[in-house]
Design a protein that fits this description.
The chain is mainly α. The protein folds into two domains: 2-151, Growth Hormone, Chain: A, CATH 1.20.1250; 172-346, Growth Hormone, Chain: A. The protein has 14 helices and no strands. The chain has helices spanning 2-9, 13-41, 43-63, 67-99, 104-127, 132-150, 172-202, 212-226, 228-235, 237-257, 261-275, 278-287, 294-322, 325-341. α10 runs antiparallel to α11, α10 (237-257) runs antiparallel to α14 (325-341) and α13 packs antiparallel against α14. The protein is globular, with a radius of gyration of 20 Å. The N and C termini lie far apart (43 Å).
Length: 348
């Protein structure tokens, strides 16, 4: 919907960038509060309420006739998506606890597939001549159907392990996990915003084909997450993070140092495979922290992760401006080496 909104409202790139901050800002503002609310009301109620609330705003985003309407819609959308995010991951921790198996990577893999499927369905509808507003209503109806048909399947318990006051700052261990998520999300965000630019400007790939790099990364990440639970069960969380961050660092090193487009494509695949299971392991570890309710720990970790997703591309831009984009990619390789060296934290 973004290019349509830009064209409909006559926005330039700077204006669009500022308006889109409302989306990420809404998510980050809501997540700490939603951690407390989820702990008080239970994951099921928050998932259902915020999931249905998300459905309401999609047609508004497709229709928004003014900058104020679009900004308010994006802020509301970000708040509700942040609520779903926290409650969904806290619920996933409870499901893992009840089932006794590692499941988080598979859940995140389906999250990735959902993003790809949603984009593909709307693109297909638009190609068939369906209006953008009608696409908004269709996707809202599909999402509402998912929530309403599945709501009885959610666990309804409120996890009462935590003894920390609800709005108190989470412990140091949760913040350390959040910083590692910050680094991993920063790498993911950089792939989204910079992979095509890198291939076009530094590896001679045409502008029409430059998006293949991000496609390689996305498919590899979804594949890694869908198969990651078995790998984590076999290796354990520490080695899963260590090996994954090391593999992603190797991918960034290939991208930064080898001048051939094929090597960069291989690097993007390695980055996707390596980074795929770092965040799921961190979320699972946050949900198991003693003395803190899972929703509150996960909210803290998610806020820091989103901060990396939002600020990472800008940081890469500053590094690239000071040197060049290959050096910025090499910087990310170094960041992921630090993540690999810190992997022992997930055992604690």
């Amino acid at each position: 919907m973004v290019p349509y909104a830009k064209s409909r409202l006559g926005l330039d790139d700077a204006q669009l960038g500022l308006i889109l901050l409302a989306f990420g800002g809404g998510s980050m503002i809501s997540m700490p509060f939603m951690g407390w609310l989820t702990h008080r009301l239970g994951n099921r109620k928050v998932i259902i309420a915020s999931g249905l609330a998300l459905c309401v705003v999609l047609p508004v985003l497709a229709w928004a006739p003014t900058i104020a309407t679009l900004t308010a819609g994006l802020l509301y959308f970000g708040v509700m998506l942040g609520a779903v995010n926290v409650a969904m991951n806290a619920h996933a921790v409870e499901v893992e606890r009840y089932d006794g198996r590692v499941l988080m990577s598979g859940f995140h893999g389906l999250f990735s597939l959902g993003g790809l499927t949603g984009a593909a369905v709307v693109s297909g509808l638009l190609a068939l001549g369906v209006s953008l507003l009608a696409c908004g209503f269709i996707m809202s109806a599909l999402l509402a159907a998912i929530v309403l048909t599945q709501h009885n399947s959610f666990l309804d318990e409120v996890h009462e392990e935590g003894t920390r006051p609800p709005l108190r700052m989470p412990g140091a261990m949760a913040l350390l996990l959040g910083l590692l998520c910050f680094a991993s999300f920063m790498a993911e965000g950089s792939m989204l915003d910079w992979s095509a630019v890198f291939l076009r400007d530094f590896r001679g790939v045409s502008a029409t084909a430059a998006g293949i790099g991000y496609a390689c990364f996305s498919i590899a990440m979804a594949s890694g997450r869908l198969t990651g639970d078995r790998m984590i069960q076999k290796l354990g969380p520490v080695w899963a993070v260590r090996a994954g961050a090391g593999l992603a660092a190797l991918g960034f090193a290939l991208v930064a140092t080898l001048p051939w487009p094929a090597a960069s494509m291989l690097g993007f695949v390695l980055i996707g495979l390596g980074a795929s299971n770092i965040v799921p392991v961190m979320f699972s570890a946050a949900g198991r922290l003693p003395g803190t309710p899972p929703a509150i720990s996960i909210a803290a970790v998610t806020v820091l992760g989103y901060a990396g997703l939002l600020s990472g591309p800008a940081l890469i831009g500053f590094i690239s401006h000071a040197s060049n984009l290959p050096w910025a990619m090499a910087f990310l390789a170094g960041v992921l080496v630090v993540v690999a060296a810190s992997a022992r934290i997930v055992r604690r």
